[in-house]
Amino acid sequence: MSILTEHTGAANHAAHEQGQASGEPPLRAERVTKEYLGGSRVALDNISIDIKENQITALIGPSGCGKTTFLRLMAGLEYPTRGSVTAYGKPIMGPGPERGMVFQAYTSFPWLTIRENVQHGMKIQGFSKAEQRDRAEHFLKLVHLDEYADAYPGELSGGMKQRVAIARTLAQGPELLLLDEPFGALDAQVTWEMEEMAVDIIERESKTVVLVTHDIQEAIYLADRILFFTRQPGRIKEDIAMEFKQGRRFAKKEELLVEPGYVDMEKRLYTMMREEIQGRIS
Amino acid sequence: MNDAPLSGSVSRADLLVADDENLKAEAPLFKPPREQFLGLRGSVGRYQSMFLGMVGIIALFVAWEIAHVMTPENQQKFLPSVGQVVSKIAYLFTEKGYIADVAKSVYRIYVSFFFACLFAVPLGLFMGCFAKIRALINPTVGGLRYLPAASFVPLLLVYFGPTDFAKLALLFLGCVFFLTALILDNVEAVPKELIESAQTMGASRWHIVFRVAFRSAAPQILDSMRNMIAVSWTYLVIAEIVAATDGIGAVMMRGARFLHVDIIMGGILTIGVLGVLTDLSFRIAGHFLFPYIRARR
């Protein structure tokens, strides 16, 4: 872990300490139900789950299963109809910088340079100028964009824009990293490079991560634990620990493919996915 | 410098016909079919584009000149030649203090438009950001758009008389409601994810309104302004027809009283040129205000 990650903004730092000391899980959903259209559509049905510290938890499931809705509840961008979602024991009453989010759509501000984009979250939270500069430098290096610090987002490729989003989100010093299909808009080869970079970054920064993805391979490669969601009503069909990985994370994706147990896991998830979409047209 | 493509093709050629030297040489340039003049979504170069634009303008003046020549001699004063109109404009400038009228009209357009922006930008921004403000104001503003600005002329005359203020008010009314509606559209078009990602960074509401939503929509807002100030120019003559003593419109009305068609057409030409210059000034402003738009991959 870099020394820089210790220098979070004062208020944020305090919240962080308090949160982790309380012994509460980073995120807890208790009997969460989310209904849309006055109850005619049940996106999430009575879900109770804890997200564990320093783990990467992947939410997967068929299209429309409510996995993104679940993530948005954790981000505080939406609220549950019933039940509660808490972060370190405190109910989530809206979005906040301690729960950083990376979206599928490109969210870099086009009018700011890459460096200014990365500094923006810190600026909002009142980091000192020197801290902003140092941390931006650190995180831009981490995503290999230090050479592009003075470019505008419009000049970058899709993969680079998502790297800006990741750097920006980490730079604001979140306790939790919420990733909503972050590589969903990228082409296959860039996705694969980004997945490897993500493993590297999460390992270095030791973050608690919740990842929404529709890509089974990506989920197995990145996650320590997979929550498989069913569709309408959205429930957790299975809570699967990636035991075959024995707590390791792999720097290269092909190292995972030859790991005993990988193929079984992939087959199991494909089978579950097929059961879910059987007879339904997505 | 041609090493890379060549070495690639060599190994392939070796596999196919090892002894054919021809295959190792660089292939001749490929000639794609010539682009048709009217190729669908075809390309046009910078200079070609300028040239074609000039051709269009010249064609208009040529058509005008031909129409003038074909008019019977005793009617020609109703359709003066291009030269006559241009020399009339020159005469107006040198002998009649036309510059003061032009300045007055420009002043009216810009001052009224400034106040229209002062009204429309915050209103459009707040309506785009806050659903309740939108619900409160939009039906009214939406309805007011349908009132013809010219119909306010008698009312403004009664209220304010033949004052400058009446003219400014008419120009203001002519564009303010449309401008508000356009800016509302611009703000609503700001991607939802931009707002949400600012929220997850801990941005306050006002930060998001001014530093994210407004900043994000700013280039489109400037475009809306550029389009609406064009509409403002079209209202100029209406504003200056009644009880005006100065301004381009007043000069034209005086010309009409004495059937001086060359003065009327000179006025039209002046407004056209000023309109184009206004448009250009907005484009140049955009160029410098939003450098990141140019920095595209």
Can you walk me through this structure?
The complex is a heterodimer of chains A (282) and B (297). With 282 residues, chain A is an alpha/beta fold. Chain A has one domain (3-277): P-loop containing nucleotide triphosphate hydrolases (Rossmann fold). Helices cover 38% and strands 21% of the residues of chain A. Chain A has helices at residues 10-21, 67-75, 114-124, 129-142, 158-171, 188-205, 216-222, 253-257, 262-277, and strands at residues 27-36, 41-51, 56-60, 82-87, 90-91, 99-102, 176-180, 208-212, 225-229, 236-241. In chain A, the strands form two sheets. A six-stranded mixed β-sheet of chain A has the order 6-7-8-3-9-10, sandwiched between helices. In chain A, strands 2-1-4-5 form a four-stranded antiparallel β-sheet, covered by helices on one side. In chain A, a hairpin with a 2-residue loop joins strand 4 (82-87) and strand 5 (90-91). The longest helix of chain A has 18 residues, at 188-205. The longest helix of chain B has 37 residues, at 205-241. Chain B is flat and about 80 Å long. Chain B has helices at residues 3-16, 46-70, 82-95, 98-129, 131-144, 153-160, 164-188, 192-200, 205-241, 248-257, 261-289, 291-294. In chain B, helix 6 crosses helix 7 (164-188) and helix 10 (248-257) packs antiparallel against helix 11 (261-289). With 297 residues, chain B is mainly α. Residues 1-9 of chain B have low confidence and may be disordered. In chain B, 74% of the residues lie in helices and 0% in strands. Chain B has one domain (81-294): MetI-like (MetI-like fold). The A-B interface holds A 75-77, 94-97, 99-101, 103, 105-107, 109-111, 120-121, 124-125, 151-157, 165, 168-169, 172, 178 and B 191, 193-194, 196-197, 199-204, 207, 212, 215-216, 218, 290-293, 295-297.
